[in-house]
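Ticket #4471: structure output looks truncated?

Reporter: J.K.
Steps to reproduce: submitted the chain below (255 residues) through the standard prediction queue, then opened the result file.
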Amino acid sequence: MTSQLTPALYLIPCTLGDTSVEQVLPPYNREVILQLRHFIVEEVRTARRFLKAVDKAIDIDALIFSPMGKHADAALFRSYLQPLVQGESIGIISEAGCPAVADPGADIVAIAQTLGLRVVPLVGPSSIILAVMASGMNGQSFAFNGYLPIDSGRRTATIKRLEARAWAEDQTQLFIETPYRNAQMHAELLRTLRPDTRLCVAAGLTTSDEWVRTLTVAQWKKEALPDLHKTPAIFLIHRGAFHKTNRNTGVTSKH
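Returned output as attached by the reporter:
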């Protein structure tokens, strides 16, 4: 029997693509969703479609949706939380993956925290974490940098700065691009990065199109990139050496 929810702002991950809900989300998420009436969502249409995928019996028309996407009025965000102030739980749903990570949901959560409201993150797929896991790069120190500048000069400078940090700080650097520009980004990275820097492309994670490859830039120049112009991808760079020995213990650890 499903237990009654404690009033909270529930951060509800959703699928990263055309993947079955059962493959990537635990059953508890469905239990939470079925007890919610209020949802704050990045896009109402896709949120409704996601909820129907969770349970076809959900009465979508009985639910209340508040938009938080790029065209939403941020001045209304605080009012979205009024049901929770009055003791009724609310769910946040992003377009893909985990809410509030590279996502406008962070603004809602920040308001909830200032109001002293309970915030509960649920388990689900994060393309950032999955990419780090599959890359073979340093998972103890990494930074997600979102989208790089569109201007070519600034973008090149940013790539060089991130590469310098990857080498100097032993820190994996992650960033994304609009899918139709994935090939151009890849080509730019091969032109800009040093030959021994490692580059990973992690695309279509958790979907049937999933593809992850890590090579040095020199090796990439001999490899063909698949057609990714419609596939969300994350790019990761890290220094070339992927084993580091702790001189105090003599233990070799992977990064």
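Triage note (M.O.): checked the attachment and the full token line is present. Residues 45 and 202 are 27 Å apart (CA to CA).
Status: closed, working as intended.
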